[in-house]
């Protein structure tokens, strides 16, 4: 059977530039919700990604010959971006099962405990952040509307706002379900997008050497993570920003 020629468009997959299959109008072409993509035009490797994870950056159709013949790589790029070239710094992604099996890290005595999250309606689209900051008997909740941004910008900004609540010289654990944020801020991943924001965060983190980012699986029943997610979504839905100080409740273990 002769393969039908189809155009390509330039797109982003988790902030990485890729080529994605499209129609003559520049719209993504998906088969069962998945789109053929290439990280490099002629490396002979064919990947697939969920259409929902792709953002078109230039809808101008490129000819079929832009990318050469390729063989399918078994590991899906949509589910594991590590199918792409390895991240520098020796810090890869971990699965939800691995995080749950490892259990929560022990917080130093007197440490500030933070859970933060970002939300985005579309990617890019209306974005917001949420954070819960617990310092002994004090609890602060942040819900901030950010305007039109990507999900990764919302996640990074959530960490930045959390850092703003942590005084210098204090131990703190910032829990986030964004492995991207942890990667570019703590594992040495190269920031291919959001460069200025990442640089700002790295600079702030240098002034907070006792602060550690911790991965917590999202939507896993972790109460404070679910609360941060709700605060972020409320910011997007209501297009509002608020900061609330509340009496602190006992912190339950971050992972079941």
Q: In words, what does this structure look like?
A:
The protein is 22% helix and 32% strand. It contains five helices and twelve strands. The strands form two sheets. A six-stranded mixed sheet has the order 5-1-2-3-4-6, with no helix packed on it. Strands 11-10-7-8-9-12 form a six-stranded mixed sheet. Strand 1 (8-13) and strand 2 form a beta hairpin. Helix 2 (151-164) runs parallel beside helix 4. 35% of the residues are buried. Mean pLDDT is 86; it is low at 75-90.
Outline the low-pLDDT stretches.
75-90
What is the typical, i.e. mean, pLDDT? Answer: 86
Q: Helical amount among residues, as a percent range?
A: 10-25%
Structural class: alpha+beta
The radius of gyration is 20 Å
- Globally, the shape reads elongated
Sheet of most strands: 6 strands, mixed
Strand proportion, as a percent range, falls in: 25-35%
Oligomer: single chain
Could you spell the SSE succession in H and E letters? EEEEEEHEEEHEHHEHE
How far apart lie the N and C ends? 52 Å
Number of helices: 5
State the total count of DSSP E strands: 12
Strand order of the largest sheet: 5-1-2-3-4-6
